[in-house]
Structures are given as C-alpha cells and as structure tokens.
Amino acid sequence: MKNQTPTINIFEKAVRKAGKYLIRDFGEIENLQIQSKNLGDFVTSADLKAENKLLETLKYYYPGYSYIMEEKGIIKGNEEETIVIDPIDGTTNFIHGIPFFSIVLSKLIKDEITDGVIFNPITNDFFWASKGVGAWCNNKRLRVSKRDLFEDCIIGTGIPHLGRIYENYLQEIDQITKECSGLRRMGSAALDLAYVAAGKLDAFWERGLNLWDMAAGVLLIKEAGGKVTEPSGMPWTLKSKDILAS
C-alpha cells in the first residue's frame, strides 16, 4: 500500500493472519447459544489464539522488543522499544455477533507512539498511521472532520457498565446529548478513535481505558490533523486512562 513503512507492513501481515482466525471464530459464534456456559471459554480461547498468532509474527521480526498485551500481560525486552497488543477490542460485540471489533497494534520508541494499526477483519478496514507519514484507511488518506458547529456533530463515547460506573457519567451524557446531532456508543474504543481520524465521528470521549485501547488511535488522530487530550483538557499521556479526541 501507498507510503506504508516497514513496520506497518509487518503489522499488516500480523493482523491479517490473526484476522483469518477471528473471522472463522466469529462465524462460529452464531452456532453457539449466547447463554451457553461454554461461550466465555470459547471467546477467551479466540482472544488468546489471536494474541498468540500476533506474537508469533511480531517476535519473528522484533525478537528483542518488550511487549504489553491485554491477555498475557508484559514480556520484558528492550526497555526503549515496545509493541502494544490488543487481540480483540470490542469483545462484547464479538460475543454477540456484532461485526464491530478490531485487532490493535502500536509501536512505542522511548515512550513515543511511532506506528499503529487498527484492523476490522469483518469489514476489511485497515487503519494505519506512522509518525510523519499521515493516517490512512487502506489506500485513502484520512482527515478529521471540519464541522465546527457542535449541533452538526456526531459524538462517540463509551457508556460505563457493571464495575466501570463512575460518578456523574449520566450528567456528562446529558450535557453532550442536548447540544449535538447524535451520540454513538459502538463498543470498540479503538475503532471509535479510527472513526474520529476518518471524520466519521466528530469527537469521542471515554474514561477507564487502557493503553492498548488508545495508543494506535491517538497516533491516527494526530496524523489526521486532530487533537487528543484528557476530558479535563490536560495533556494525554501514555499513563492516561481517560481520553477526549476531536
């Protein structure tokens, strides 16, 4: 693909290989009862299988790197070079047969995000960005939305549930909903951030996320001309759990 860096070529190889297994497992989901006791095990194994496939490819090319992974945790290697892996972002969608989930990879050099990919294997949308090279979806250059009236904007968010409820979240949603054209809660923070980079969503905010949910999307948005902070307006850092992107 146009302009792809060597790192993105390797990342693409990794996510497409893992994606084939997820497509197959996604097809199996509808054959299982949603109430099935075995469904949790099935999804956990799909998650781990995808992560193993990613690691297999990546470690071949980057044997000395450190790895931060959602499932397996941390593999210590070179402290200045890290790859961050999320094998399925949007697991709940995956479980319910909703085709909005993604495989997410990002590369950090000395605590700076240099490359990132977000891949939806079902729609074949391959979002990627490298520092200084721009943000892309397949061969199309991405730019953030130019809509400047809030009343024309569609805003993405993550609505907290179960143990993730935080104080005043309904007030936040109430304030935003009254002013914008529509609110979307789609269930994969990484893809939501990619959609901000692509100008499909005008902004996105969520609290209580992890680095693997955000790193690739942060780079995509910055390379697409957007802005990323914490919801408070404070600078977003690799330690941030909350994000506001526009």
Number of helices: 6
The average pLDDT is 92
The largest β sheet comes out as: 8 strands, mixed
Approximate helicity band: 25-40%
What features would you describe in this structure?
- By secondary structure, the protein is α+β, with helices and mostly antiparallel strands.
- 35% of the residues lie in helices and 26% in strands.
- It is built from 6 helices and 13 strands.
- It has helices at 6-29, 39-61, 91-95, 169-179, 189-197, 211-223; strands at 65-69, 73-75, 78-89, 102-109, 112-120, 125-130, 134-137, 140-141, 154-157, 182-184, 203-206, 228-229, 243-245.
- The strands form 2 sheets. The chain has an 8-stranded mixed beta sheet with strand order 2-1-3-4-5-6-7-8, sandwiched between helices. A 5-stranded mixed beta sheet has the order 10-9-11-13-12.
- A hairpin with a 3-residue loop joins strand 1 (65-69) and strand 2 (73-75).
- Helix 1 (6-29) runs antiparallel to helix 2 (39-61) and helix 5 (189-197) packs parallel to helix 6 (211-223).
- The chain is globular, with a radius of gyration of 17 Å.
- The model has no long low-confidence stretch (mean pLDDT 92).
